[in-house]
Design brief:
single chain, 388 residues, alpha/beta, eight-stranded mixed β-sheet, 35% helix
C-alpha cells in the first residue's frame, strides 16, 4: 500500500485548492464561496450525485463503486475562525479578521483530492459519501447535517473524520477507541451586589471581591470533586464589571468560561457542583449570583471496531511505527461527535509537523501532508468497501 503515487502527481493541484480556500476564509454557516467551489469540483470530477444545502450550507457528494454494497461517509469541515492572520504568506487571508487557523482548508482540499481519485478509479463496491460540513467552530454544523436527514438520505452506515495536529510529526496518525475529544460546555455567571464608593466598602456589597472568590472556588471542582483518574477542565475566560472608574465599586460583575469533560458522569457532576459553588461563594459576601449553563458539543466517541480498522488503514499508508492506536484524548471539542452519535465511526489525527498551534494567528496547514491524508481516505474507502 503506502502513499498512492497519483497523489504525488496531484499534489500541487490539491495544494492550490487549499491555498485558494485559505485566502478566502468564511465563518460558521456563511461558507457560500467554499461550498460552491466544493460542489463545482465534485461535478467536474464526475461525482454521481452532488447535493448542496444540507445542514444549511453543507455539501455531500455520492460516488458509486463498481458493485452493490454499503455506503460509508468521509467528512471534512470548511469554516474558518474570527482571527487576524499574521503568517504573511503569499496566500494569506484576504479578509480582515478571518483566517483558516485550524486547517479546515486542508481538510477540505484533501477530501476533494480523494473524491477526484475515487471518481476516477472506482475500485470499490457500494458508495462513498464525501461530506463537506459548515460551522464546526461553534455552530454545530455536524448536528445540523445529521438533523437534516443526511445519514438516512444517503444510507450512510459508518462515518470517518480526520483533523490535523500541530506538534505531532508530519504524517503520523493518532487515534484511540472511546472518548477522543471532550464535551464542550459554557457558563455565564452574573453576580449582583450593591454598588458604592470605593473608599467606603462597608456600605457596599463588593461584587469584584465576590466574583474573584467565585473564580478561585471554581478551581476546587476539578481538584476536589472529580476523580483524579478522570479528566475535566473548568476555565474562567472573561471577568467583566460595569465600572470604569478607580473609585466605584460596581453593582454587578460577569464571568464567562468553559467546561470540558470526557465522561457523562463527570459532565453531570461538574455542572451540578459549578452551580452550587457559585451560589455559596457569592453568599459568603452577601451577593447574589445567577448561572446559565449551556451544554455544547458532546464527547467525540470512537467506535471500537471502526477505530481498529482506521489503525490498520493508517498503518498501511505510513507504517505501523508512525501510528498511535492509544493516543491521549484531547480536551478540545469537535462537532463530528454528532455524526458519531448517529453512526459508528472513527476520528483520527494526522500530524501537521512543527507548526504553530491550532487557533493561533501564525498557524498554517502543512501542504506536505496532503498525499498522506488523501491516501488514507482512499484506502479507507477501498478496504472498507472491497470489490467482490
Amino acid at each position: 500500500m503506502g502513499i498512492i503515487e497519483r497523489f504525488n502527481e496531484l499534489h500541487a493541484e490539491i495544494a492550490s485548492w487549499r491555498q485558494d480556500i485559505h485566502c478566502n476564509p468564511e465563518l460558521m454557516f456563511d461558507v457560500h464561496r467554499t461550498a460552491a467551489l466544493v460542489a463545482e469540483k465534485l461535478r467536474e470530477f464526475g461525482v454521481d450525485e452532488v447535493v448542496e444545502g444540507i445542514g444549511r450550507t453543507g455539501v455531500v457528494g455520492l460516488i458509486k463503486g463498481r458493485g452493490e454494497g454499503r455506503t460509508i461517509g468521509l467528512r471534512a469541515d470548511m469554516d474558518a475562525l474570527p482571527i487576524e492572520e499574521t503568517t504573511n504568506l503569499p496566500y494569506s487571508s484576504k479578509v480582515s479578521g478571518k483566517m483558516h487557523a485550524c486547517g479546515h482548508d486542508g481538510h477540505t482540499a484533501m477530501l476533494l483530492g480523494a473524491a477526484k481519485y475515487l471518481a476516477e478509479t472506482r475500485n470499490f463496491s457500494g458508495h462513498v459519501a464525501v461530506i463537506f460540513q459548515p460551522a464546526e467552530e461553534g455552530g454545530g454544523g455536524g448536528r445540523e447535517m445529521v438533523e437534516d436527514g443526511m445519514m438516512e438520505r444517503f444510507n450512510i452506515e459508518q462515518v470517518f473524520g480526520m483533523h490535523n495536529m500541530p506538534g505531532t510529526p508530519m504524517g503520523n496518525f493518532g487515534v484511540r477507541p472511546g472518548a477522543m475529544m471532550a464535551a464542550t460546555d459554557t457558563f455565564d455567571i452574573e453576580v449582583e451586589g450593591r454598588g458604592g464608593h470605593a473608599a467606603m466598602p462597608h456600605e457596599a456589597i463588593d461584587t469584584t471581591v465576590a466574583a474573584a472568590s467565585i473564580v478561585m472556588a471554581l478551581q476546587s471542582i476539578v481538584s476536589r470533586n472529580v476523580d483524579p483518574l478522570k479528566s475535566a477542565v473548568v476555565s474562567v475566560t472573561t471577568f467583566h464589571t460595569e465600572s470604569q472608574a478607580y473609585n466605584v465599586l460596581p453593582q454587578t460583575a460577569e464571568l464567562k468560561g468553559t467546561v470540558r469533560t470526557l465522561m457523562p458522569d463527570v459532565r453531570e457532576l461538574v455542572e451540578a457542583r459549578l452551580k452550587d459553588v457559585v451560589q455559596h461563594a457569592a453568599q459568603v459576601y452577601g451577593a447574589r449570583a445567577t448561572v446559565r449553563y449551556t451544554r455544547g458539543y458532546p464527547v467525540t466517541v470512537n467506535a471500537v471496531a471502526e477505530t481498529a480498522f482506521a489503525v490498520g488503514v493508517a498503518s498501511g499508508v505510513v507504517g505501523s511505527e508512525q501510528v498511535s492506536s492509544d493516543a491521549p484524548p484531547v480536551m478540545g471539542g469537535e462537532d463530528f461527535s454528532y455524526m458519531l452519535e448517529a453512526r459508528p465511526g472513527a476520528f483520527v489525527f494526522i500530524g501537521n509537523g512543527d507548526s504553530a498551534a491550532l487557533h493561533n494567528p501564525a498557524y498554517n496547514f502543512n501542504d506536505e501532508i496532503i498525499p498522506i491524508g488523501c491516501s488514507y481516505w482512499v484506502q479507507l474507502a477501498e478496504q472498507s468497501l472491497p470489490l467482490s
